[in-house]
Amino acid sequence: MSLRNVGIVYRKELTEALRDRRTLISTIIVPLLLFPVLSVGFGALAVALVGKAKQETPKVMILGGEDSPAVVEGLKKLEKIEIVPAAPAWKDQIINKEVRAAVEIPPGFERDVARQKSDTVKIYNYKEELKSEFATDKIEKYLKDYRDNVVKERLAAKNLPGAVLQPFEVKQENVAPPEKVSGAAFGGIIGYMVILLCMTGGMYPAMDLTAGEKERGTMETILSSPISRMHLVLGKFFLVLTASLATAALSVLSMGVSFSFLHRFSENSGSQRGEAAAFLLQLGPKTVLSVFIMALPLAVFFSATLMTIALFAKTYKEAQSYLTPLTFVVIIPAIAAMLPGVELTPKLSLIPILNMSLLCKELVAGTYHWDFIAIIFISTCVYAAVALFLAIKMFQRESVLFRS
Prior knowledge:
Elements: H1 3-18, H2 21-55, E1 59-64, H3 69-76, E2 82-84, H4 90-95, E3 101-105, H5 109-114, E4 122-125, H6 130-157, H7 178-209, H8 211-216, H9 219-223, H10 229-267, H11 270-277, H12 285-311, H13 316-336, H14 354-364, H15 370-395, H16 398-401
Helix pairs in contact: 1-10, 2-7, 2-10, 7-10, 7-12, 7-13, 7-14, 10-11, 10-12, 10-15, 12-13, 12-14, 12-15, 13-14
């Protein structure tokens, strides 16, 4: 094999790729801007929205309670709660977010409490709706405090201490460092983004160097040059690999810089943000380098696969229709790694893409399972070698190159 011939093809394709606006956008602009926007922009937006939701005074409706004035009066005195008159269509008002919650007090509630008869107070809300959840929490806290006071009064009437009902406490305490907590919570997202950008970074060059050449009518000219098919496909492959690796490298670098900046900003912005900063992702040079090294064989796999599939297309547009479904094939296992309870096992470490996404989650959390790392790296290298072999074989088939 002549490295000189491969280098000639590579330099020629690299020069043309650097002139292509689509390749530059997908390889450089997107990875450099995506993570700062996601980490800083969406993080700041989320904090602002949650803060605004907490400051809002939610409207709450009381259903019943005519014969329980003490409970109703207590609810009315809650801070940042606005009690509105009951209405027949209260469910629709909650669904339409006109009212955030409704409290149903059963008939004779206070009388039943005095007689030590059990009753149930229901809180109706809009589940997973932020402002409705805040209103529900405030109401629930008041009712729990009311219940505790009733219990204390009953115990005091019988000269019994409060410890009768609470002989001991159960307390949870986290022993994992903040970087592992944040890594376990958000590491799957990092793996997902790196995998997706690693593929999309090589997608446009792969389509341009195969279907694009056919559409422009330059494929015949390139094939008639005094260079073997293997040198030709390797030169093109290394260009696609360069684009894929550049996207992965820039995305990991941008990710590390973005989270480092956000972490320092939060530490210097008051105690509340300083506490939140402890749970931000902290990506050190070791983590960034580890993620990039593990992405190397995956980039080879993606580059060869993209070229092989795009080679069957006659036009650039047809190649896009072939490669678009591949995006979903990649997204599904990458997202599966973020599901709760899905962890690295010997079997899952052999499944391409899923294994890399799970490993990225572990690496971001600072956990290095060297046996799994070896299995994933070797298996991904094998998949990459098979994909590259198929790409070379497809370039040697006239029926594929000149498909009509």
